[in-house]
Amino acid sequence: MSLQEELKGPPPAKLVVDHVSKWFQQKRQTIHALDDVAFEVAEGEFIVIVGPSGCGKSTLLDIVAGLEKPDKGQVLADNQPVLQPGRHRLVMFQESALFPWLNTFGNVMFGLRLKPGLRNSERREVAKFFLHLVGLEKFMEANVHELSGGMKQRVALARALAPNPRVLLMDEPFAALDAMTREQLYGDIQRIWEKRRKTIIFVTHNVREAACLADRVMIMSPTPGRLRDVFEVKLPRPRDFNSIEIAQHASQLTRALKGYMPNTTPAQT
Amino acid sequence: MKRVLLAILFFIALVAVWSAIVRAEIWSPILLPSPGSVAEYLTSAFRDGTLLQATAVTLRRLLLGYFIGLAIGLPLGLLTASSKFVEDTIGVLALGLQTLPSVCWVPLALLWFGQTEGAMLFVVIMGTVWSVVIATDTGVRTIPPIFARAARTMGSGPFHKWVHVLLPASLPYLVSGMKQGWAFAWRSLMAAEIYVTILTGFGLGHLLHYGRELNAMDQVIGIMLVIVVIGLLADKILFSPWERFLHRRWGTGRV
Asked: What ipTM did this prediction achieve?
């Protein structure tokens, strides 16, 4: 199999979140994390889920990944119910979750090694391709602790993209980064998404980030976690994080979010 | 290079102080022999082969017991970290027995195995296993859960997860546990060898014991030196490469 064939791979997947509810049993109380959340994601669509902390957005992402099981409802990936984690839906976490016992290259190879049907020489080629894509080909041999926060997340992105998943799930991947690095990564992720079209669900509490990246923004509210609103962002790409249009969309999202916050008055306009 | 030179100078100074004390004749040379007489004993013991033979006997017991101990201790530690039942049973046992100096096993070992190699091995294994169990257990428990989650999403199954995630992730703890296990194994073997005579082979501990019986302190100190040197070499050969790897990868080791 050539690198080009391997990079083609399967097309991005369609996702259906089919009326998912989830409760967490704690010592003293039961937490209603998700309440009847339902939406669909088209092939290759970039969805951003926005909500305050505790609205269950990360739980939802875990359920789509197959790391958690819903108590009610189900998630379908290309009409197949998601029962466990799988190589076709890879996750990028808030902390990079890179393995400190491997170097940069070894980390990108980790998922590739678990992918059958490839020779090791092909795996190495694919890993190099993706390290190049995120601009870190010079850091192949670097240890994780030698990388900056932004570089770590780039490696994590390369690691998630390398096995050619059909869905990419991103759980506040840029939240721990400084503003400058983050803005750089918004550009990178848009550029990479153009080249490597994936179905993406991206979770954040940053409305501007949502407006900058999403095809559609889903708004969630806490206790219990509910899906409240959907906004389409029809701006051309690549989008500039600092543009006025993004700011306008972001303030629209903020207003909507505030309206669903418990114990707060709706924003006055 | 500078560090090696400094270390050599330090040890030369130490020997100089030692011989100065001997020359001052505060204690009789029977109590404190001179560096020269210790060196004399060591060369003669080396020439007639007793030293090499004893070292070989001791090292064979030590390495065999140590690696058997590791082979038992590592999987046991993984089990105690992953199963509540094993944690509440074997885990508690390990915690208790770890505090027991392993020379306490010598009387039982003699009764069960007689004056044989088996008794020696048993004592060394008992000295190794428990600290390795505890270190492995702690190591696995301190792994951030996100590593296992990330691995699962990439398609890592239970066995793959153990071998490629949990074991390497707990490596820093494993290496320090293995080091501790080594120290315990070494101590318990020396205690056992000084304590009992095993007819199938005389180890370093026996030579030290005879040195005491014959009032030959040059022999006692000579054997002690050999034991120290073996300990240092073992550290450099067995553990230093691992520690260097850990420091490089994890970015630790310098404050």
From this structure: 0.86
Beta strand A199-204 with A167-171: parallel, antiparallel or unpaired?
parallel
Report chain A's mean pLDDT, rounded to a whole number: 88
**B168-200: burial string, b at 16+ Cβ within 10 Å, e else:** bbbbbbbbbbbbbbbbbbbbbbbbbbbebebee
Dist CA A74 CA A82 (whole Å)? 7
Q: Is B160 on the interface with A (CB under 8 A)?
A: yes
> Quick one: tokens of B121?
């091995």
Q: Is the pLDDT of residue A268 over 80?
A: no
Written out in words, the top-level CATH class of the domain with range A3-260 is alpha beta
- Contacts of B188 by beta carbon, 8 Å cutoff, 6+ apart: B101, B102, B103, B105, B123, B124, B126, B127
Q: Are residues A97 and B152, on separate chains, in Cβ contact within 8 Å?
A: no
Instruction: Give the one of A90, A143, A146 whose C-beta lies nearest to B153's C-beta.
Output: A90
Which residue ranges form the domains of chain B, and what is each CATH number? 35-250 (1.10.3720.10)
3-state secondary structure of A63: helix
CA of A163: which chain B residue's CA is closest?
B154
> What pLDDT score was predicted for residue B254?
66
Residues B203 and B186: their CA atoms lie apart, in Å, by 12
The answer to whether the CB atoms of A85 and B155 lie below 8 A apart is yes
What are the domain boundaries of chain A? 3-260
**Statement: residue B225 has pLDDT above 90:** yes
CA dihedral A81, A84, A88, A93 (to 10 degrees): 120
In chain A, DSSP finds a helix count (H) and a strand count (E) of 8, 10
- Do A53 and A207 form a contact (C-beta atoms < 8 A)? no
* Residue A139 and residue A103 in contact, taking contact as beta carbons nearer than 8 Å: no
Which residues of B fall within a CB distance of 8 Å from A100?
169, 249-250
Q: Which of residues 87-146 of B touch A (CB under 8 A)?
A: 146
Residue A233 has pLDDT above 90, yes or no: no
CB A75 within 8 A of CB A18: yes
Name the 3-class secondary structure at A174: coil
Encoded amino acid at A111, one letter? G
Task: Return the structure tokens found at B154.
Answer: 């990439």
Are the C-beta atoms of residues B63 and B178 closer than 8 Å to each other? no
